Amino acid sequence: MSAISQPSRISREEYRKQKEEDAARRAGEAVPLKDEHGNEINPHIPSFITKAPWYADTGAPSLSHQRLPEEVAVEPHLKLNQWYDRGAKAGPAAKKYRKGACENCGAMTHKKQDCVERPRKRGAKFTGKDIMADEVLQDFNGDYDAKRDRWNGYDPASYKAVVDEYEAIEAARQKAREEQIDAQTSTDIAAVKKVAKKAVADDEDFGSSDEEDADEDKYAESADQVGQKLDTKTRITVRNLRIREDTAKYLINLDPESAHYDPKTRSMRDAPEVGVKPEDMRFAGDNFLRYSGDSTNMQKLQLFAWQSAQRGKNVNMSSNPTAGELLHREFQQKKEIMKDTTKTSILAKYGGEEHLEKLPKELLMGQTDNYVEYSRTGNIIKGRERAKARSKYDEDVYPNNHTSIWGSFYDRGSGQWGFACCHSLISASYCTGEAGKTAAQASSANALLEAARDSPPPEQEASSSRKTLAEQHLEDLANGKVNAKGKEKEKNLPNYAKRVDPTDEVDIDREKLKKALAEEKKRKAMGEDEAWQQTKKSKTDVTQEELEAYRLSRQAFDDPMANYKDPEED
What we know:
Residues 143-408 form the Pre-mRNA-splicing factor SLU7 domain. 39% of the residues lie in helices and 3% in strands.
C-alpha cells in the first residue's frame, strides 16, 4: 500500500465553514493564510492553484508546488556567444610520443578507443611519427536544448556567399532570356509567350513565379494588339494610395523610451523625434486629433456630468449620454438668459448703455466724405486739411533760451530726461549749448572710468620720476653744473670710476688681464675667512683689468653656456 495518506472526507458543516472563512479573507475581514516561509497567500487566488496535488501535499497552505526548485532555478545556462569550438586544435603537435597519449594518433586528450582518426597499422606509440595535435576540451553546463542546438556555433555572415552565388546565376539567366526574346522578329503575343514559357521550362530550379509572370506581362504589353496601335510606355498609371516609400510612424525612432505606439488603435500621441523643429518633423504626433471635431464638446459634457454628480444630480455620460447632453443644453440656455438678465439690471441701475454701442464706421476707420486733393510734394491743392489731434500738454515751448523742448534727450547712464540742445537734466536750467554737452560728457561715469583707466598708477609715476645717481651725474655734466673742485677729485679716483660713460672704450692690457684672472681664481678657491684676510691686506683701489677678470669669472645663472666645458682644453 502507498505510504502517503489520502485526504479524509469532510462534513458539510466543515465545508460550509471553510467557505465562510475564504469569503471573510477575500473581504479583508480575516487575516490571510501564510506559507512555510511566512509570506501571505493572496486570498483571491483560485483553490485549484493553491491546492497542492496528493504527491506534493505538505498538510499546510503553501504555493511552493507552483514554483521551480531552487537547484533548477539557479542552474547556469549558455550565453549567446558560447558554443562548441568543433575541430579546434590546442597548439602545434608534439614531436615525439608522450606517455598516456592515444596509441593510435598520439594526442593527449583522448584514448585509443575514443580516437576518431583512421586506425593505423602501426600506431604512433610504436612509430613516433605523424603525431596529431591535442583537441580543445570545453566544459559547458548547458541544458537539454542547448546541448542539442542545431545552430550552435553557426555564423550568419557565412551565408552571404550563398546569396551572392544565387544572385549571379539569376542575373545571368535573366540576361540570357531577355536576349532570346529580343532576337524574335515577330511581335505576336503567342510567339512571345511561347518563348517565355520555354525559358521557364528550361530554368525550373531558379527564379520565382512572380518575376516570371512580370516578365511575361512586360513583353506581352510591348506587342501590338489587333486593330489598334498603343504605346504602353506613355500610359498614365495611378499611384497606389499608400506610398510605400514613406516610413511608418513607429519606425521613425526605434528608441524604446521614445513616444508610445498603440498597435490596436494605430496611434502615437507624442512626436517620435525629440529636439527637431515642428516644421521639420516628418510626423508630429496624433495629439491634434484629440482637440478636433466634437472632442472638445465631449470634454465639456464630461466635465458638466462630473460637476452635476458632485451636486447630487444623477448624470452619467457612460450610462445615459442622451440625458446628459439634453441637461447640458438646457443648462447653457439658462446660463445665457441669466447673463442677459444680470446685464440688463446693471445697466438699468447704473446706466452707461450708450458706451456699449458700436462707434460709426467713419470714426473707426477714419473715413469721411470730405474730398481732399494733394500734390506730389504733399501739399493740399483742393479741399480742407484734416485737423491735427492736440495734446493736453504744452507743445513747442522753449523756456530759458533753450532751442529744444524738455524731454527731447534721454541720458541712459542716469535714466533721466533733459534738453537735447545742451544735455541738461534740470528742467529749470538755462541753455549752455555745446559747452554744456562737453561738460556733461566729461562728467559722465563712463568718461571718468576711461580717464582713470588711461592714467598710469601712482607707483609707476613715482618710479618713472626717480633717477639713479649715474643718470643724475650725467645730466649735471651735460648741463655744466660740476665745479672745478669736483674735477680735481675726479683725477684722484681709480680707473673704473673715471669711466663714467658706459659707451667709452677702455684699453686693457692682456698680460695684466691674465694675471688678474689667475689671482681671481686663487681668491675664489680660498675659504671665506682667508679671502677676507687677504682682501684687508691688499690695496683698496681696483684696476680695469681686475674688474674685467671679475666679470669674466663670475657665474651667470641665466647664461645657458655658463657650465659649458671645452673637451679640447682638458
